[in-house]
Amino acid sequence: MSQDSRRLRTAAVIPAAGRGVRLGPGAPKALRALGGTPMLIHAVRAMAASRAVSLVVVVAPPDGAPEVRALLDGHTFPERTELLVVPGGDTRQQSVALGLQALPDDVDVVLVHDAARPLVPVDTVDGVIAAVRAGAPAVVPALPLADTVKEVRPDPEGGQEPVVGTPERARLRAVQTPQGFDRDMLVKAHTTVTFDGEGATDDAGMVERLGAPVVVVPGHEEAFKVTRPLDLVLAEAVLARRRVTDGYA
Ligand code: CTP
Ligand code: MG
């Protein structure tokens, strides 16, 4: 058993098949440039920066797998990192499921990381992996909230939305990626848990539905998700600061 487990690998699945509607018109979000380099390349490098990660599965837009493969082939990554590209689906949940199907048998720990979080530091990645390797079946990096959160009764017509509650802020966390999982647990969640509408936006939430424990480790403010145009400004500023402080390009 211990002999076998030494050969088991950690892989990262990167869902990158979204359009990026909230970012506004343009190329699919993952292919947009940050500091002159596509966001997806930053995200792959962020996963590959962890010495534990030996495989990265990129889930491309449904009709964009050849383009993404060519993009990856035009950039450099650590020699230890194997890269696979698979076409994604209509929802993030479907895209992650398609990425999981591409994993070889020798993978026992899986990270799921949004291409839209290109700047997550390697210490956060390693912290998630370490917590899974220490026995947690599901691990999420998370931060306390700055804003107070209200629960409302949403009005699809755009009218007034009455407040129905105010959860105590100190008990809330904003969760990020990479989220880390025991591979079998995540595959079970993706094959048995169903969500209506746009599907699950959070893999750990699917594992929660199985009744399995999910633990939180510290997230990082640089692991923010590029969602709206202002996030691009912040991401460029973070890259500029890194260039000054450690010569990172
Ligand atoms: N994603 C995916 N497949 C989809 C939808 C989303 O792989 N069908 C990925 C995105 O590429 C992104 C991650 O899931 O890396 C998080 O999703 P989000 O930030 O919502 O990105 P988009 O769905 O692209 O953005 P928007 O919701 O504004 O359209
Ligand atoms: Mg989305």
List keywords for this structure.
8 helices, 249 residues, alpha/beta, Spore Coat Polysaccharide Biosynthesis Protein SpsA, Chain A, 32% helix, two-stranded antiparallel sheet, binds cytidine-5'-triphosphate, binds magnesium ion
Task: Note down, in words, how this protein is organized.
The protein is of the alpha/beta class. The chain has a single domain (3-141, 175-245), classed as Alpha-Beta Complex (Spore Coat Polysaccharide Biosynthesis Protein SpsA, Chain A). The chain has eight helices and twelve strands. Strands 1, 4, 5, 6, 7, 10, 11 and 12 form an eight-stranded mixed β-sheet that branches. It is globular. Residues 15-22, 29-30, 59, 88-92, 95, 114-116, 225, 227 line the site of cytidine-5'-triphosphate.
Please give the share of residues in helix: 25-40%
Helix/strand order: HEEEHEHEHEHEEEEEHHEH
Q: How many DSSP-defined strands?
A: 12
In this entry the ligands are: cytidine-5'-triphosphate, magnesium ion
Strand content: 15-25%
* Overall domain count: 1
Summarize the main sheet: 8 strands, mixed
Radius of gyration: 18 Å
The structure class reads alpha/beta
Mean pLDDT: 94
Principal-axis shape equals: globular
CATH-assigned homologous superfamily? Spore Coat Polysaccharide Biosynthesis Protein SpsA, Chain A
pLDDT < 50 runs, ≥5 residues:
none
CATH class: Alpha Beta
Q: How many individual helices? A: 8
Q: Remind me, CATH topology? A: Spore Coat Polysaccharide Biosynthesis Protein SpsA, Chain A
InterPro entries: IspD, IspD/TarI, IspD/TarI_cytidylyltransf_bact, ISPD_synthase_CS, Nucleotide-diphossugar_trans
Pfam family, one: IspD
Organism: Streptomyces olivaceiscleroticus
Function: Catalyzes the formation of 4-diphosphocytidyl-2-C-methyl-D-erythritol from CTP and 2-C-methyl-D-erythritol 4-phosphate (MEP).
